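Re-running the complex after MR caught last week's input typo. The corrected sequence lines follow. Everything else is unchanged.
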Amino acid sequence: MPVLCIVLILIVIMIYSIYVSVIQKRNKVLEAYSGIDVQFKKRYDLIPNILTIAQKFMDHEKGLLEEITKLRTEALKISSTADINGKINLDNDIKARMREIMIAVENYPDLKSDATMVQAMKTYNETEEHIAAARRFYNSAAQELKNAVEIFPSSIIAGFMGIKAVPFIQADKYERKAPKANDYLK
Amino acid sequence: MSDYAHKTTNNINREKSYYQMRCDFYEKFKNEIKPKLSCVEKNRKKKLSEIKFLYVGAVFVCLFAIFIFIAWIMQFFRLDTDPDDALFLLFIFMTLFICSIAALHFICENIQKRVDRIKERIKKLTMQLSVSCYNDLKWYCNTYRHKDKNDLLKSLVIPSGYTLYFDDIFEGTYKNIQFEMIECYQANEDNIKKIGQLVETHEKRYYGANYFAGVVIKVKMNKNFNGHTVVLPDCKLHSSFDYCRLKHTILEDVEFEKKFNVHTNDEIEARYLLTPSFMEKLLNLKTAFSAKKISCAFYDSNLYIALYSNRNLFEISSLWYPVDEIGQYEQIHNEIISIYKLIDHFKLNEKTGL
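Corrected-run output:
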């Protein structure tokens, strides 16, 4: 009888520790997602500054600048708890447009040498690096949660609690496409 | 030539290759330093002959003590036949023996103190001449600003809890990067004869596997950050208590994870700083610099890299060897260049995002 009690207590402790571990992993994913959100917000706050400076010089890129402004406004409307993939897809579009702006800047020497623009671009690049780091953190947390959800015995506990694996962040279609030198060297 | 091309050409001209640095070093040594070292060498020879004279004196005192000891022992055999005489001579010889032992001890300690003083003076002169080969490089010995010492310990790049002693310290600029190179070691106070001084008899400065001895390089990091991240070698070197306020984090590089443990208070910032490229460079650093172990820390906008080493680096103050021979200065040159190579290795002068 006492042996049975001890075994039962041990099983309960084991189940509880697995439960705690799964909850911690889920919370880590939420934390990582929130971290990406923070970095996105930093980027969205920076974009108007870059566009304001660029507008003074880039007369022929008005269409591109307006498109970025529109995408940024849409991104800000999406709440933090919305589907991450939707948010990231929109952000990828913004990133692609900003990349076009950066390339277009090369054609405007006055803009390129403007001290404010140089500083803004430096800050933008740092923000991009932070976003990349936040994505790596998110993928790491997502991997741990996925392992917990798919591997026995934590998969049983996760199934009871309704916790599911979250998708990884993947490279966008622009990043997957290999750059062609001919597009830039004319 | 456009302004941009002109600037780039100047930069290329200003940035010397390691080969060019070596050639400059040889030229400067031959033309400027060696003539100045001749006075130091003369002085060294004079002091060396004084020390040799003291050693000869010590040998004579030692022989005298042995002779007196034998004579003293022989008096014991005379106690039966001539007790009065034997007792008197026993007393005299015992006194003489104690005096000669005391004199020997005094001479040996005197020799050691003199050797230490002479070595310190030679080192000061020769190191100052040696660093004059490099632009913007200064040398200090056994001194470190209290504030910087605290920062070094707070960065957790080296284990805490042991007394920290400093040896050679260099401050300089390389490719517009300000750096400090601090040779230091940690030990229990019981194992050090004189606290705060490096004693020659304790050349092996590792007083156990748990203490740090080597070089810490402090460099201004080329990225802005606010948190605290520490990368430690995968061994039981550092007490886990030091890192209880930092979280252990696991990065993607499997090879890196086998050799290092990462602790940080901001996981995103840790990944921002420890890019895959940086991790690979850290892995290659051990091979490139033949360091036994490496740890690094990002703290207070600085990058600290600790290279563990068994050797006493930057030493050119031997009393027994000529000070004007280029061999030992070449060794110092190699050690300084290796730090420049470290800055190049991590591309700390560039903001490439890698």
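None of the earlier attempt is carried over here. The interface with chain A takes residues 223-224, 250-252, 267-272, 275, 351, 353 of chain B (CB under 8 Å). The first strand of chain B starts at residue 137 and ends at 141.
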